Each structure stands twice: as C-alpha cells, then as structure tokens.
Amino acid sequence: MVMRHKTPRLTLLGAGPGDPDLITRKGWKALQMADVVLYDALVHPDLIAEIPTCVRKIYVGKRSGSHCATQTEINQLIVEAAHQYGHVVRLKGGDPFVFGRGMEEIEFARAHGIQQIEVIPGISSAIAGPAAAGIPVTSRGLSNSFWVLTATTLDGAFAADMEKAAQSDATVVLLMGMRKIQAIAELFVQFRGAETPIAIIQNATLDNQRTTIAQLGNIASRLHEVDIHAPGIVVIGEVVRVGEHFASASVLNHNLSH
C-alpha cells in the first residue's frame, strides 16, 4: 500500500473560557478533522473526550510554576507533528491571541516550512469570565472602555501600562495576577481610592465558578476565600457593583426555586 503524504498544516484554536460548550462551531469541527491535537492545561477534559479516538492527543499544559513543556518544546512539537502526521490543531484556553503566545507559534511554524496556517478565535476569558459573574466590562454611565492586562511579565514586574490603567476610569481586567492581588490593590488604591470595588473570578463559566467581591481597601483580608495558586480573573472598577446585584438576584432566584 502506498501511503499518501499529508501536507503539514496548523490550526491555532481557542477553546473558550472553560465551559466546553463555549467553543465555537468552527473550532469543534477543526478538532474532528485534526490528525494531532496539542492542548493546554485550561482546556476542559470533556472537550478532549469529544475528539475522535483516532486523533493523537498530546498534553502540553503550562501552569504557574509547573510546565509540562516549555514554549520552545511546544514550538518544536508543532513542527514535528505537522510534518509527520499532517493537520495539527494547537488548542488553547480562551483566545490564542490574548496572552496565548499564538503569534510565536505561527512564526516558528512558518519558519520551518508550514505554510497552511489558520487561526480560529476563541471566546476570551477576559470578557466571558466577568460576564459569567454578571459583570459587564462596559456599562452606560459606569464605564465606556476597558483595559486587559497581564500582571505577570517576563521579568516579573508589572506591565508598563498598569499604572496608566490605574489612573484611568476604565474597567481593568487582569489575567495571571492571582499571586499579586495585594500589590495590585496597593497600586490601584493610590489613584482610585480604597472603596473601589474589585472582583476575583475563578473557574469562570464552570459549575464550580466562584466570585469574590470586595473593595481595594479590604481585599487583602479576603484572600483566604480564594485559591491564589489557581488561575483567576481580576476585575477592578465600578462595573463590579453590577455583579454584586447579579449575585444577589441569583441567590434569590435559587432560594425561590427550592
């Protein structure tokens, strides 16, 4: 039997914020057509279970302080798998172009002979996480713009725009900042005041989602309520007050239905 050579191909795919049902229809189809799937730690196991058994599935998860594979190794795996098997789907949590290092993987793939490359966007946790907690990133009369920042840069310092964001009136959404909550609050309170609301959302869109709402001035005393070693989304701004009303209404509706 003559084996047909498959053209190396890469699809960069966002899995969405957590709930496996929130992947796009186009993204789900790509998983069904893949030869190899390289997936991250934040991808839900139920989504992996829906990938056909004939597809090779390789875990390349990275969590704070624990990497199954380095970015360099992941880049190399993408190229090797594409040249050996054909269609590689690189499956990432959220959206691959929001702090997902997606462009680095594309550039490496192109430099190593992979020309067929497609990006399928995912729902970013930066917007969907707050939404799942009833917090709009913009709301008429409260905020007409928002920042999305990472709290963890290569050198360990705050992002250069962090202070600018703190000085603005915009909603601020911070990713990869759980271990720096206290330092973040101390910076923002200088410009926005101690009574400014802050929300921490963990396991967003999942059944075990947890939202902690406090103020910049007292968040340090509430950190025992969250897991600072697990991923989380931090939201700062007046829109968080909308989330407080949403949570109260949800509890009321739950009690009325039981």
Helix and strand topology:
Layout: E1 9-14, H1 25-32, E2 36-39, H2 45-49, E3 56-59, E4 62-63, E5 66-67, H3 71-85, E6 87-92, H4 102-111, E7 116-120, H5 125-132, E8 146-150, H6 162-167, E9 171-175, H7 181-192, E10 197-202, E11 210-215, E12 233-236, H8 240-256
Parallel strand pairs: 1-6, 1-7, 2-3, 2-6, 8-9
Antiparallel strand pairs: 4-5, 9-12, 10-11, 10-12
Helix pairs in contact: 3-4
Radius of gyration: 20 Å
Architecture per CATH nomenclature, i.e. the level-2 architecture of the largest domain: 2-Layer Sandwich
From the spread of the alpha carbons, the general shape counts as elongated
Classify the fold: give the CATH topology of the largest domain. Methyltransferase, Cobalt-precorrin-4 Transmethylase, Domain 2
Would you identify the CATH H-level superfamily of the largest domain? Tetrapyrrole methylase, C-terminal domain
CATH class of the largest domain: Alpha Beta
Strand order of the largest sheet: 3-2-6-1-7
Global mean pLDDT: 91
Number of helices: 8
Overall domain count? 2
Please report the total strand number as a whole number: 12
Main pleated sheet: 5 strands, parallel
N→C terminal distance: 64 Å
Helix content: 25-40%
| Structural class computed from helices and strand pairing | alpha/beta
Unreliable residue runs: 251-258
Order of helices and strands: EHEHEEEHEHEHEHEHEEEH
